[in-house]
Amino acid sequence: MSTTTSMAEKPLPSFDIVATYRRILAQDDELTMPVAAIEALVEAIAHSTVSTVAETLALLEHHTAVLKASIANPISLSAGTDLFQRYLVTTLNRPAALNLGPSDDFRIIRNHLLSNGKLFVDRAKQSREKIASFGTSFIREGATVLTNGGSRVVGALLRRAAESSTMRFKVVYVLSSSKSSDSEGGLKTVADLRAHNVPVAVIPDSAVAYSLGKVDMVIVGAEGVVENGGIISRLGTYQMGLLAKSKGKPFYVVAESHKFVRLYPLSQFDLPIEQKILDFSIAADAKAASATAKPSEDEGVADLNNRRPGLTSDDGVDFTPPDLISGIITESGVLTPSAVSEELIKIWF
Amino acid sequence: MSETAAKEAVQPPTESKDAKPAEGEAPKSAEGETAKKISPAELKKQKAAEKQARRAQQKTTSGPAATPQGPQSKEGAKQQQKGSKQAPKDDKSRPIPTRTKPSQTNIAPPPPQQQSKREAKQDPKQLGLFFGHLYSQPRKHSMVGTSKDVHPAVLALGLQYSSYTICGSTARMVAMLLAFKALIESYHTPKGTSLSRHLIQLLGPQIEYLRDCRPYSISMGNAIRWLKDIIVKTDPSTPEYEAKRDLLEEIDMFIRERVTAADKLIRDVAVTKILPGDVILTYASSSIVEQTLLQAHASGIPFSVIVVDSKPLFEGKTLARKLANAGLKVRYFLITGASHAIKDASKVFLGAHAMMSNGRLYSRVGTALVSMLANAQSLPVIVLCESVKFTEKVALDSIVGNEVAPPEELLSESERYALLHLKPHLPKSHPVTTEETPAEGAKSAPSDVLKWIEASKNLHHLQVLYDVTPAEYIDMVITEYGSLPPSSVPVVHRLSTNI
Amino acid sequence: MAPGAALAPGLTSFLRSLKTNPSEHSVDHLIALLKRRQIRNSRPCAVATTALIEKVVGEFKGHDAMKLLDRVRSVGRRLTAAQPREVVVGNIVRRVLGLIREVVEDNVGGDLIGTSETGRSTPTQHDHGFRPPLNSSISSFSPLRHAAVEPMDASLYASDMSDSGELSRRPPLLSSHTSYAPTSSAPLVNSLFGLFSQPVDSSTNVSTPTGQASPDGKGAHSLNLDRLTELNRSQHFDLKGEVMNGIQELQEELEQSDKQIADLAHEHIHANEIILTHTASTTVQKFLTKAAKNRKFTVVHAETYPHDNTATHEVLLTGRKQGGKAQDEDDKWKCLTELGIPVYVIPDSHVFAIMSRVNKVILATHTVLANGGLVAAAGAHLIAQAAKSHQTPVVVLSGVYKLSPVYPFDLDELIEYGDAGAVVPYEDGEFVDKVDVEHPLYDYVPADLVDLYITNLGGHAPSFLYRIVADHYRTEDVVL
């Protein structure tokens, strides 16, 4: 992508990408962060006056950077922005494939994007529904499922399974005691399931190993699926993966395909975000500390702040390597981690 | 003095075939004389020479002399008795492998040729792959060449061992002690020796004969050591009848304490581990596991049992039958279906042949597989084992010390029938096809299949009886001293042998 | 083969009857054979199915590709319903369906493909010219196909129609339970970009993007084929002929599969190794005999009682498998013992005991599943697990025709149970009365217990199998 000359061109000064992003998220709480990011970027393009490919790409880069800088955990969001960027790069550089004349390619794309903004959102939601329908095949009659939420897809999947009249299963839901909005979402899911006559047991993180003896499978959601087939998800997921593996229980991840991120972490500490989970301090520090437990900002939550003090254990994320994962359920079916790598390689190369 | 001792010592070796130096030395050590320092070494040499002579003799005479010998009539009668006893058993249940001896299955060809051919063949064929070290002696199936000192009860016992009629570590030990009781009862100390010395010597041939029929179980070995110990400790001045009476009582007490009472204690503890709704999986047949399950059932706990079994002994079938007759819900699988069986199980109970000092379980072959599956599923594996089966030996794998079974047993009668039709398809170079067909026409017996296998240069059947289960697959060992982790086996062994 | 005498129902009699009977009759015949288990095991079923489909296609009249697809699909549905556990039947049907689609796409001009918009062209984005795309696009019926990389440019793309069909058509691992299969069939790439592409080219897009509801998806697809059939009529290409050619290639592949696997034997078996195997599998025996030609090793063979032990002994004694069907004479092979390889037969219970001395485990399988796991004869799981605990490599030999694109959601459905009378005969009535005797014929072996798959395309890690599935099957066909 060439960005040298077009850096001079700036978007309209009044366009605030971050505010747009937050507004979009706030409008629809079913939205995931990546899709909201894409929507915001689309709006950015709409508001701008760029007319060439290079300018557009530069604009995009600029906005993406601003967006990422403002959010403490930009991983999930970057899945969307990177995908969008990639899409634009490939389509805009391939006018011949579009069977269009060289002069009007850009405008057509632009119009297409702008007029179909809503469609992206709808399709994203549909993918969630599709995944949920797979779930009924996964959860066998009489099974006990362990989950820590981590994504609204998981809730949808469990709910869908509960609604099917023939399925009898039990759920063990891991809820952290913090008052993040994630746990609120979790409580809501629990209440929903119970309303559907599904027995749900709520346990804290510390009881996961204890309960694994009675569990048949583990299903978790993810914020991002990384290049080697591993996942980035809510803090506590890695723990569950390790325990499930040591007890021989299958560990499934549900993730829509637009969450695939171009990252290759080697360890927990190799993520591009700052996490203050291991925060050593001594007595003298305690007095000076002004720690506040921020509400978490996992996907779908509208509460974002512009500060980036680093994530704490309330809203932290961890990385689960692919050898702990039995399968990743996307709307295209169940993938093995190696299949995920292949898909990502295909896009990014 | 040492000379007479040496002479006496020489006598038993001439009677016995392969006197183990250890057994010869035990009575020597009882003498407590300084002379014993020299004589054992000499004795060893003498015995070794004797052994060689005996062996050479045996090789030349055992072949052709097998059938037409004096004791043959007695042996024949006994065999017929055995045969008739076994025949009705065969009729009833076809698939149970016919544990007949080779001398019974052959109709036309004389047995000795078969036997010598087999013995001769065993040398050129590469024996038993990595079990070659266990093939030192072919198993004895007849009473040919037995020392005349062997008591009739022991003779019968030996045949029962080699035909698997009595099978199972504890059962064999108890049967052996009972046979020795008979021996002691009918024993009279000859003039000029003391009971303690002579009886020990008399035990020698019995033990060798039994070992030739089937190698010892660890429990048998422990019992023999204990028995010799108490015989040796008998005060020479006690009158014979009293000494005999005491010995018999001791044996009774031993059986009572180490087997009967131990079993009761083990049962009581094990029953507490069976919870309502459990599905207990067990492998082959162990008497103590059977007792535990029956006791638990009798006390009203609702549970069900899965029995996993394997060929050729199919011991699990008898267990399943007994349990089902008692009213338990039993499911029966063969070892190939074990992966399915284990999915429904909640606990695994296993019997033992022996517990090794490095915490490994020495038990019926296939136990290791079942434990491995249970471990993979995090099911608790509980071993029920009396302390009499503990040993100070260690084993790293199943190959180091094992018992090889005759390869003929791999194919049961019915299986051999099923393969008969292959005769015309045998490869051209197979020695059997180059033989002349018997004049009687095409009636081939199932034993022909065995002949094909033996004749085939490269095809071997291999069968061992035991395997070693790694300690990490075992969660708990229940003995009469309490429950322990497998790593504490040497502790208990020391306790039990020091009492 | 008994000349003229009535043959027991089985593969040979079926193949013979195919020549004389109409196809509908033959379909019923095969269904009956499958239901009654008179034809069993993967290879015979595969051969029978291929022959049947060949007949069905042969009798098909007209040039309408869609009708042909429907016909084959309906036959396939009936066959798989007759015996759901013979997965290979479904595999063959799906291969043929994919073949038909490929033939159609080969012959249809480039303009159809060209009109599709970004969704269609998105796959070409990969080949920016500086890096070849990774999805293989060579015809899956070439037996020497590996999932290799083929460089492609966009310019080539328009002209090289034979590749277009396969491009980026990696079928994800779907279950047959979901009705969303056709629509979500678009590979992730498309679905990832599909978020953007759909509204532009909904109807012409052959590779349906995500987000479409299932009825539309199927509709879009058939819509496309309608267009294709229109074009077909106008272009008069020999649909039947090409499909028949493809089926014949498939038959050849079936025949050659064992030989091709055996050709790799010398790479994997070395001198003085002790190999453990079980069951009387033809594939394994041929593999070992090929290796025996220039290597000296030892084989330890587990009996697989009671499932296969008679056959195992037969194979070891005579080097030929007996069974209901008569073998062609050239299917005989010299048994291992004749070639100087010592073979030790052990009961299945001994597997753990001897595993510490075994260098390699070679297994045959009934079916290979898309997640890398396999359904093999009972006892395979024991062997694989014991090998794992001793860190012994496990190699599975299997032709590609055994590879199934269906994701195994319910493993219990795949396991067939046999006659309990083989375990304990019914004469022992008292026993059978009181005791539940079970006789599972197959075991599921999870993918992490297998180290290597050797197929007629070469060796692969279990994690790579999804790619081979993608190369050979179309996602639209996963649900019959």
Produce a short descriptive summary.
Chain A is α/β, with parallel strands linked by helices and 349 residues long.
Describe this entry's structure for a reader.
- The complex is a heterotrimer of chains A (349), B (499) and C (480).
- Chain A has helices spanning 17-27, 33-47, 53-70, 75-92, 105-115, 117-138, 152-163, 181-195, 208-212, 237-246, 283-288, 337-348; strands at 144-147, 170-174, 200-203, 217-221, 224-225, 231-234, 251-254, 317-320, 327-330, 333-335.
- With 349 residues, chain A is an alpha/beta fold.
- Chain A folds into 2 domains: 5-115, no CATH class; 130-348, 3-Layer(aba) Sandwich (Rossmann fold).
- In chain A, the strands form 2 sheets. A 7-stranded mixed β-sheet of chain A has the order 3-2-1-4-7-9-10. Chain A has a 3-stranded antiparallel β-sheet with strand order 5-6-8.
- Chain A is globular, with a radius of gyration of 21 Å.
- The model of chain A is unreliable at 1-12, 96-101 and 290-308 (pLDDT under 50).
- With 499 residues, chain B is of the alpha/beta class.
- Chain B contains 19 helices and 11 strands.
- In chain B, strands 3-2-1-4-7-10-11 form a 7-stranded mixed β-sheet, sandwiched between helices. In chain B, strands 5-6-9 form a 3-stranded antiparallel β-sheet, with helices on one face.
- In chain B, strand 5 and strand 6 (361-364) form a beta hairpin.
- In chain B, helix 16 crosses helix 18.
- Chain B is globular.
- Chain C folds into 2 domains: 107-235, no CATH class; 257-477, Translation initiation factor eif-2b, domain 2 (Rossmann fold, 3-Layer(aba) Sandwich).
- The radius of gyration of chain C is 24 Å and the shape is globular.
- In chain C, 45% of the residues lie in helices and 9% in strands.
- In chain C, helix 1 (11-20) runs parallel beside helix 3 and helix 12 packs across helix 14.
- Chain C has 480 residues and is α/β, with parallel strands linked by helices.
- Chain C is built from 20 helices and 11 strands.
- At the B-C interface, helix 13, strand 3, helix 14, helix 15 and helix 16 of B face helix 15, strand 3, helix 16, helix 17 and helix 19 of C.
- Strand 3 of chain B pairs parallel with strand 8 (435-437) of chain C, so a sheet runs across the interface.
- Chain A: GO terms for molecular function: guanyl-nucleotide exchange factor activity; translation initiation factor activity.
- Chain A: It is found in: Cytoplasm, Cytosol.
- Chain A: It comes from Massarina eburnea CBS 473.64.
- Chain A: Belongs to the eIF-2B alpha/beta/delta subunits family.
- Chain A: Keywords: Cytoplasm, Initiation factor, Protein biosynthesis.
